[in-house]
Structure formats: C-alpha cells, structure tokens
Amino acid sequence: NIITYLIRLDKVKSIAYNINEKKFITILRIINAIDIKEVEKYIRKDDEIMESMYQFLKEWNENNAKNGFEEYMGEKLYEAQTKGKVEEKKNVAKKMLSKNTSLEYITEITGLSKKEILAL
Q1: Alpha carbon of 40 to those of 26, 28, 87: distances in Å?
Q2: pTM attached to this predicted model
Q3: What does the pLDDT look like over 58-104, one tens digit per residue?
Q4: From the CB of residue 54, how many other CB atoms can be counted at a distance below 10 Å?
Q5: If you average pLDDT over residues 51-64, what whole number do you get?
Q6: Tens digit of pLDDT for each residue in 5-29?
Q7: Are 29 and 42 in contact (CB under 8 A)?
Q8: How far apart are CA 26 and CA 30, in angstroms?
Q9: Dihedral angle, C-alpha 7, 9, 10, 12, nearest 10 °
C-alpha cells in the first residue's frame, strides 16, 4: 500500500528538530530546485552525500541536459554494473593467482586478458 505525502517546503523550513530532519528538508529543497544554481545554495561541502549528489546533478546538467533524466540514470546504472562486473572478475583472478592457477585458465574463466591479469 503506497502512502502519498504532500510536503510544503515553505512550511517545513523551521520544523527541523535534529540534524537528520534538517538534512531531509535540505534534500527536499534540492529535489524541488529549478536549476543547478539553486541546488548550489543548499549543498554543504562538508557533507559527503550532499556533495556527491551535487556532483551527480551538475554532471548531468552540463553533459546530458539534452537527454532525459531517466536515460541518464540508465546509463549510470549500466556503467556501475559493468564496473562492478569487471571488479568482480579481477577479484576472482586475484584469488586464482594466489592459488598458482595458470594464466590460460584464469583468462578462460574470467574473460580478462593476460595483460589485465598480470597487472593485478
């Protein structure tokens, strides 16, 4: 069962009781921002999550504004999955190397090149 909330940002401005609520309200304002300049007003440089969110939005705004946000998110997800798979293959290869497995067999199993394996 999905519950929908209407959050009036003008009303929650002064309602933050603790740091988590304050961060939540800030994130809501970022989501509601009209442009990247407005987002910059709310980002705290000492907050790693907010800084990461800002960098993501800035990159999308600069490089992919012509594409839809959903398409951009799909591309980023694909990149992350691909990177994760490569890292996983490298970890398997490292374990196999530690067991003195032949390069040919590691290449066959992981799909990594001999050069990639030797670089590990």
Answers
A1: 11, 14, 33
A2: 0.42
A3: 887 776 656 666 677 777 778 878 888 888 889 899 999 998 999 99
A4: 19
A5: 78
A6: 666 666 666 665 666 777 887 888 8
A7: yes
A8: 6
A9: 80
Q: Return the structure tokens found at 89.
A: 């293959």
DSSP letter at 30 equals: H
Q: How far apart are CA 71 and CA 107, in angstroms?
A: 34
Residue 81 to residue 97: CA distance in whole angstroms = 24
3-class DSSP string for 35-76: CHHHHHHHCCCCCHHHHHHHHHHHHHHHHCCCCCHHHHHHHH
Element (H, E) at 10: helix 9-12
Residue 52: phi and psi, rounded to 5, are -65, -45
